[in-house]
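Can anyone check this?
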Amino acid sequence: MSNVVLKAKNRQKAGSTESRRIRRSGRIPAVIYGRSGKAVSIDLDAVEFVHGVKGISESTIVKVQVEDKSYDAFVKATQRNIVDGSILHIDFYEVESGVVLRARVSIILQGNPVGVREGGILENPLHEIEVECLPKDLPERIEIDISGLKVNQSLHVRDIPLGDGVRLISSADQVVALVKFAKAEAAAATVETAAAAAVPGTPAAAAAPAAAPDKKAAAPDKKAADKK
C-alpha cells in the first residue's frame, strides 16, 4: 500500500452551484463510494491532489483523511474540463482491510531485449493484468526485466512472478511481450502477394495486367470479307 495521504473536508451541500463555488475556491468536489453503496461527499485542495497522486497507478491505494476519519481507496475516475484540463470531479472507491478485492495492475517492461539489439522488433500487446488479493498484498505495478528476451521468444502472463497472496484472474496464455524480425515479416508478405497473384479470382490476380491480344488471331480474314 502506498504512503499517499490526501486531506479532505466533508461536503454538506450538493448540486452544480455548490460544485462551482468549491472549484472557484481552489478545491475539487469528490465522492467516496463504499462497498455497501454508501457515498461520502467531500472536497479536496486541487494543488495538493495533483501533486499527491503524481506517478501513482490505477491500482494504487491512497489514504483519504476526511477530518477525523480516514478511508483507504482507489482513485477510480477523474472528470476534467475539456478546455483547460483542470479536474472537475473525483470518484474514489473505498477498499476494506481484510476483504479480498479485484484490481487491474499495470505491467512495466524494463531493459533492452537481446532480440532487439539483433535487429528484432519488440511488441507489447498487454499492458495490465487482473488479480485478486487482500488490499495489503496489492502491487501498485509489476516491473518485468525483458533484457534476456531473444528473437522469436515471448513472455506470457503465466511467466509473471506474483507475490504471496496474489491470485491471477487474467488468462495465463496471454502474451505480454515478444520479439520478432521485421525483415522476416516483409519477406512473408511478398511471398503471400506473389502466391495470391497466381490464383484466379483473388484481388492480386485481378489487379495483374491482362495479356496483350494476339493480333493475328484478332485480325479479320480479308479474303472472306471481300467475298461478302
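Reply from J.R.: I decoded it. The chain has seven helices and 13 strands.
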